[in-house]
Specification:
The chain is α+β, with helices and mostly antiparallel strands. The chain has nine helices and five strands, in the order H-H-E-H-H-E-E-H-E-E-H-H-H-H. Strands 1-3-2-4-5 form a five-stranded antiparallel β-sheet, sandwiched between helices. It is elongated, with a radius of gyration of 20 Å. The protein starts with a helix and ends with a helix.
Length: 221
């Protein structure tokens, strides 16, 4: 995930508020007929197995349909919702190596929140419709992996600059963050292959990895 992609996600935080309302039947039809395989953008995210989220936001007599976006981008699309507004979400994801989807109903509170913050607060407040299929933890893990991937790619890019440190320090750090990217890829595969009780691979602890790298390459920190 590049710096440009993460910036694009931030810039789209007001996207929902800018969409025009349509008759609610039209919005619900588009919502029901979502087909991720036909989404023209985000081919890389689809290949990686990142969940996609779409929304229908009720607005007066109509509704706003927000087309599917990868989880890490969709998370910022609800920040400007008004108090009491009802929001339907659809998560398209993989489980047991099969394409599945789950839907839920959220209610916007007084505080402006991300999709994930809103989902969490709705679950905590006892909204039984918020997470009917129990995918909160699955989505939370995917969102965490997206953050790790972004961090690793940004660090690898920074290590290409001389001001980042000595040559062996930069090489060691690049090796570590490549290990993080491998961890993210493997973890996504685990998440999307198994239907329940997923145990992710052990996280590559930085101190252990770096000690081993310097020992193997005979360099000093």
């Amino acid at each position: 995930m590049s710096r440009n992609m993460s910036r694009q996600g931030r810039e789209m935080s007001g996207y929902c508020a800018e969409k025009a309302a349509v008759p609610i039947e039209e919005a619900l039809m588009a919502f029901a007929l979502v087909d991720i395989s036909r989404v023209e953008n985000f081919s890389l995210e689809k290949e990686k197995g990142i969940p996609f989220i779409s929304f229908v936001v009720k607005e007066k007599e109509g509704a706003v349909f927000i087309e599917p976006h990868p989880l890490f981008m969709a998370d910022g699309l609800l920040k400007e919702q008004k108090t009491g507004r009802e929001i339907l979400y659809r998560a398209d994801y993989m489980q047991g190596s099969r394409e599945k989807f789950a839907t839920g109903v959220l209610f916007a509170g007084k505080k402006q929140e991300t999709f994930f913050g809103l989902l969490k607060s709705n679950i905590s407040s006892g909204n039984a419709k918020a997470d009917i299929m129990g995918i909160y933890s699955y989505l939370e893990t995917h969102l965490t992996l997206c953050g790790l991937e972004r961090l690793a790619e940004e660090e690898i890019a920074f290590m290409g600059k001389e001001e980042a440190g000595s040559a062996d320090y930069r090489e060691a750090n690049c090796a570590y963050y490549r290990e993080i990217l491998s961890y993210v890829e493997t973890s996504r595969r685990y998440l999307n292959m198994w239907s329940s009780g997923v145990l992710l691979p052990p996280f590559p602890e930085r101190s252990v990895f770096m000690t081993g790298w310097y020992q193997e390459h005979g360099s000093s920190q």
